[in-house]
Specification:
CATH class of one domain: Mainly Beta
Structural class: alpha+beta
CATH topology of one domain: SH3 type barrels
Strand order of the largest sheet: 4-5-6-7
Strand content: 15-25%
Helix content: 25-40%
Order of helices and strands: HHHEEEEEEE
Largest sheet: 4 strands, antiparallel
Number of helices: 3
Distance between the termini: 125 Å
CATH architecture of one domain: Roll
Number of strands: 7
Amino acid sequence: MNVKRNVAIALAAGAGAAWFAAATPAIPPRDIPAAPAAIDKTGAALQHEVDRLHERLRPDAAPRAAVRNPFAFHRTARDAARAPSIAAASVDSSAPTASTPVEPPLTLSGLAEDAGAVRTAILSASGQVFLVHDGDTLTIGTVSYVVNSVTANGVELRNVADGAIRRLRLP
């Protein structure tokens, strides 16, 4: 009976498996979805736009030389325009020799006045800023100046070596 019982169990298990297989729906094979085609179209459109922008942004001319140095104190485009003529003048053979003293570049940046009517001139030279009053001595390199007077719109300096007067006005 042992054999009969084992055969009956095997047949029942086989019939249950067949019934279970018939009850589950068949899964169709996977098809390639149509969505990548839409993504490909979007990618192609994006690549077209990128190529168009590259064409538009392509430089036609070389970049210009820098006109001003943001790290230099009070340098203007006018100074840059004057620079080639100054360089050409220094190379010129008819230029004065070292016997004539060269005045340092000195500019009047501003004026200030205290409540007690004491005026202060704000001068700049060689990347430095000087605050001077009447009677102060100012030395720039090898040239020394004495401040004769600070007026409402300028300053008057006297060269200590030769007594020449130099007047600086606000622009």
